[in-house]
């Protein structure tokens, strides 16, 4: 794919987007929402929420939307088995390979490995690694891995939540193995990034911050609750910061959470590489989330990450795609997020749907209570400049 021919505005820089069409081959099927079940009494079965159409719209809005002059395109490639072992166990990778050879398997609720899925998962992992390597090698500061199947629920030894391989986790390990001393992961998908957290739960080299709706555990594949007391273990104690937000938190609530919790944590951790894990299922209209973020909120999050990266990681940010299941609005919210990451001076796209009413008071009180808990419990946050 060729780079766009238009020149971005002075000072904005380029966004390097990594993509491979082979990821569209992952077919998650039809059924009742994500169950894959046909109950026999419905005339119309819906596509699984994690389907190729959502990503096609993300792809097309970046190719033909007003952000396109700022984008340079790169082709992804499949990950090698040896690369997967930096995050996942040999036994688990062998289980995935065997399931593919046998024609597929449902690993847990809503998580189907079907014919073509394994190749797509390898492409998602490899494309994310290619994007991280591009930044680490100094070719660009801002990269976005447009990938599916998603990855942040995939734990070292098991699949979960539509995810097989932890794309962001693999990229973090690549950064650490390439000389980065500390990496920060900020996950704004509406669901807890439990797989990424699990992979670095005992490490003080990776700060994982997850802002998610307060959904708790959803079974044996997702035993983590995403609660504030899941802080890490051993050397990693205090380096897993969960921010479970009440349903309907909205733009101003997320902005408050960033200013009160995320920014101080990054300031004290001082990472030399940043990974922004994005899921547009935090939007106001997503079928798989209960939050009220609009394009404005996503854009402001991108700007805050841009500012933090400029201060601590030399402006280097890898953005990794996760959820987002409203086929059109997810694409618009992605566009807004990347506008923010590029720190563009004006909005390029207006919001076609919002605004959804927010209840500001309750999220503010929840965030204040999380802040107090972190100050009391997290050693490296006790010196934070609140």
Automatic annotation (TrEMBL):
Keywords: Chromatin regulator, Hydrolase, Metal-binding, Repressor, Zinc
Domain Histone deacetylase residue range list: 48-339
Xref: CDD domains: HDAC_classII_1 (cd09996)
Xref: Pfam families: Hist_deacetyl
One Gene Ontology term of the molecular function aspect: metal ion binding
Single GO biological process annotation from the record: epigenetic regulation of gene expression
SUPFAM superfamilies: Arginase/deacetylase (SSF52768)
Cofactor(s) recorded in Swiss-Prot or TrEMBL: Zn(2+)
Coiled-coil segments on the chain, per record: none
PANTHER family: HISTONE DEACETYLASE 8, HISTONE DEACETYLASE HDAC1-RELATED
Family: Belongs to the histone deacetylase family.
Protein's name according to its UniProt entry: Histone deacetylase domain-containing protein
Species of origin: Cannabis sativa (Hemp)
Species classification: Eukaryota, Viridiplantae, Streptophyta, Embryophyta, Tracheophyta
């Amino acid at each position: 794919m060729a780079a766009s021919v238009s020149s971005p505005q002075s000072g904005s820089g380029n966004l390097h987007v990594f993509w491979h069409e082979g990821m569209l081959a992952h077919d998650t099927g039809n059924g009742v929402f994500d169950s894959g079940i046909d109950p026999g009494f419905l005339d119309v079965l819906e596509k699984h929420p994690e389907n190729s159409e959502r990503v096609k719209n993300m792809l097309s809005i970046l190719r033909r939307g007003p952000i396109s002059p700022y984008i340079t395109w790169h082709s992804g490639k499949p990950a090698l088995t040896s690369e997967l072992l930096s995050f996942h166990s040999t036994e688990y990778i062998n289980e995935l390979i065997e399931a593919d050879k046998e024609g597929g398997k449902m690993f847990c609720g809503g998580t189907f490995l079907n014919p073509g899925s394994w190749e797509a998962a390898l492409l998602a992992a490899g494309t994310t690694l290619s994007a991280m390597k591009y930044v680490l090698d100094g070719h660009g500061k801002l990269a976005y891995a447009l990938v599916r199947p998603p990855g942040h629920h995939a734990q070292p030894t098991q699949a979960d939540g539509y995810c097989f391989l932890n794309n962001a986790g693999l990229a973090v390990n690549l950064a650490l193995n390439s000389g980065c001393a500390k990496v920060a992961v900020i996950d704004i998908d509406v669901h807890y990034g439990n797989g990424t957290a699990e992979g670095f739960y005992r490490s003080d080299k990776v700060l994982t911050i997850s802002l998610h709706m307060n959904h708790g555990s959803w079974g044996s594949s997702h035993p983590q609750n995403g609660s504030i007391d899941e802080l890490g273990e051993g050397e990693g104690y205090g380096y897993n910061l969960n921010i479970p937000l009440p349903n309907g938190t909205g733009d101003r609530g997320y902005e408050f959470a960033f200013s009160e919790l995320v920014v101080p944590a990054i300031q004290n951790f001082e990472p030399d590489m940043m990974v922004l894990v994005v899921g547009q299922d935090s939007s106001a209209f997503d079928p798989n989330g209960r939050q009220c973020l609009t394009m404005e909120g996503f854009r402001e999050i991108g700007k805050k990450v841009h500012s933090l990266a400029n201060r601590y990681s030399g402006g280097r940010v890898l953005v990794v795609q996760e959820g987002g299941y409203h086929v059109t609005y997810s694409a618009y919210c992605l566009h807004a997020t990347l506008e923010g990451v590029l720190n563009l001076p004006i909005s390029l796209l207006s919001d076609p749907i919002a605004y959804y009413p927010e209840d500001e008071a309750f999220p503010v009180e929840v965030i204040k209570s999380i802040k107090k808990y972190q100050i009391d419990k997290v050693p490296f946050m006790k010196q934070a400049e609140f």
